[in-house]
Design a protein that fits this description.
Elements lengths: L7 H4 L5 H6 L7 H14 L15 H10 L4 E4 L6 H7 L7 E5 L14 H10 L5 E5 L4 E5 L6 H4 L1 E3 L1 H7 L9 E3 L1 H4 L4 E5 L6 H5 L2 H5 L3 E3 L2 E3 L6 E6 L12 H6 L2 E4 L6 H11 L10 E2 L2 H16 L12 H21 L4 E2 L9 H5 L6 H6 L1 H17 L6 H6 L7 H8 L4 E4 L4 H9 L4 H8 L8 H14 L3 E5 L3 E6 H5 L7 H6 L3
Parallel strand pairs: 1-10, 1-11, 4-7, 7-10, 12-13
Antiparallel strand pairs: 2-3, 5-6, 8-9, 14-16, 15-16
Length: about 500
């Protein structure tokens, strides 16, 4: 019998220590497991971290090198950069099953027992010692570091109730109640937000990482725990609550820096994968690629905004939540108007403001402006950035000798005409209003190449938003939608609350 060739089902039929020895099993550390299985996957050209996008040439090679080096790992990066997901996916590099002495608190390897319980059990029963099989999905422990975490939580403490029940002296090792770390022996142990762990608690990890022993209330136990540690942390200057103490940082062999998606395409792939649109009538809602680009562009603008705290970061959860709200805005319109299908509109972006305001941490100036206004401005900046990818800059065309293609629709607004686009308007009314603006359809058909027929009105509305962002038109947010009118006439016709519209351009 060759242990390496046995299937998971065959392994679970092995019930005793004697049968395990006969199978040819040899103890292997968790770091060796991870290393050996990673080597196999690399040789087979298999993707180790399925669904992690944008890290193929940066973070993932660093993680693979750390695993090959048998290192403990610290993933350092801003929020929403898939640090915890990567740690959870490392379980896929473990053996499917490993044997454990039945009843052992420390998940003892039957051929390399650590605990007194396992040693006494094996001495008593010999080859008849019962064993169980531990699946790789269960070999993962995660602890969120908070200021109230104690040494007893992580390492352990003396249990007086156990001592009284078993009638044992406090000098007996069996009165110890082990914490999360010893109970995670032969597992991947993750501590999230490591800087939030109090310094004195971080110190308790020194010996486990380096020497492999633990000390509990005067007990000095030589327990060479077999653990793959993975820590996650935001950059230390992000929070005033704490930092990683230098000796602990020194004992974590590999520190890997994560990052946000480096392109809109990668961001769109992540958003499409993570957005929860299950149960929504997505087959009836058409979303142009430009709208998906705009969602990602909002996050990019937020990461560079002077009103958003750069040290805090802008999580990928912003685009995911924004995409879900966008779909819901179109879904709501379907139900309101009893329509069979619809195309999302630029005006639907107003519905993603709640997804933005809770995901960005504002600096003092941003707090003064207000989260809602900053979010509205970020949408405007995203439109401005994407506008020049499809249309010529209105500022440049205004000075061009060959003529300004936007002159006819701008002249219509200059005559005092106003356009109100409401979020709940039926598709028929929406299209009718847009086509009522002279020259707007021609701007789109002449300047945007190969535009699908169903996206024509979407691009017509996009053109209006772009002209507003380039200060050619006035755009005002209404309770139920948006209003476009001539920029100069709006300055002389400011109603109550209109003053804010002009402050937005200065943000």
């Amino acid at each position: 019998m060759n242990y390496q060739n046995l299937t998971g089902k065959e392994l679970t039929q092995i019930k005793t220590l004697g049968q395990l020895k006969a199978s040819g099993y040899q103890p292997k550390s968790i770091k060796e497991e991870l290393r050996d299985n990673l080597i196999l996957k690399i040789k087979r050209k298999e993707n180790v971290f399925e669904g992690i996008w944008g890290y193929e040439d940066t973070v993932i090679p660093d993680i693979e090198r750390a695993i090959l080096s048998r290192h403990n790992i610290n993933l350092l990066g801003l929020r929403g950069q898939a640090k915890t997901r990567i740690a959870r996916m490392m379980t896929q590099l473990l053996d499917e099953y490993v044997p454990v002495v039945f009843g052992s608190e420390l998940n003892d390897d039957p051929l390399a027992p650590l605990s007194t319980f396992a040693k006494e059990k094996i001495e008593e029963k010999g080859d008849e010692t019962p064993i169980i099989w531990w699946h790789r999905d269960d070999r993962y422990t995660e602890k969120l570091a908070t200021p109230d975490v104690s040494v007893a939580d992580l390492i352990g403490d003396v249990d007086p109730i156990k001592a009284a029940t078993l009638k044992l002296s406090y000098n007996d090792e069996r009165v110890i109640h082990y914490g999360l770390v010893p109970r995670s022996n032969r597992s991947i142990f993750v501590i999230n937000e490591l800087p939030d762990l109090q310094a004195r608690i971080q110190v308790a990890l020194f010996n486990i990482l380096q020497e492999g022993d633990i000390q509990i209330r005067g007990f000095k136990l030589r327990l060479p725990l077999d653990i793959q540690f993975v820590f996650t942390a935001n950059p230390e200057d992000y929070t005033n609550r704490g930092s990683i103490v230098t000796p602990l940082k020194d004992r974590i062999e590999s520190q890997i820096i994560t990052h946000y998606p480096k392109s809109i395409e990668i961001g769109k792939r992540i958003t499409a994968q993570e957005a929860n649109v299950k149960g929504k009538p997505v087959d009836k809602i058409f979303i142009p690629e430009l709208m998906k680009d705009l969602i990602e562009q909002i996050a990019i603008e937020a990461r560079h905004s002077e009103y958003v705290d750069e040290k805090s970061g802008v999580s990928a959860r912003l685009t995911i939540s924004a995409y879900e709200n966008l779909v819901s805005a179109a879904e709501r319109r379907l139900y309101l108007n009893g329509e069979e299908s619809t195309v999302v509109r630029i005006a639907d972006l107003i519905g993603v403001i709640p997804a933005i305001t809770g995901k960005v941490e504002l600096v003092y100036e941003g707090e003064q402006e207000g989260a809602g206004l900053v979010a509205y401005n970020l949408i405007g900046k995203a439109i401005r950035s994407q506008f020049v990818n499809y249309f010529p800059s209105p500022e440049e065309k205004k000075k061009a000798k060959e003529g300004n293609p936007y002159v006819i629709p701008l002249a219509w607004f200059g005559e005092g005409n106003v356009l109100d686009l409401e979020a709940s308007q039926s598709d028929k009314e929406y299209k009718s209003l847009l086509h009522a603006v002279p020259g707007l359809e021609e701007v789109v058909t002449q300047l945007v190449s190969k535009i699908p027929e169903k996206e024509k009105e979407f691009f017509m509305e996009f053109a209006l938003h772009g002209l507003a962002e380039y200060s050619q038109l006035s755009k005002r947010m209404l309770d139920t939608g948006l209003q476009f009118k001539d920029l100069f006439s709006s300055m002389f016709d400011m109603g109550p609350g209109d003053e804010d519209d002009f402050e937005e351009d200065d943000l």
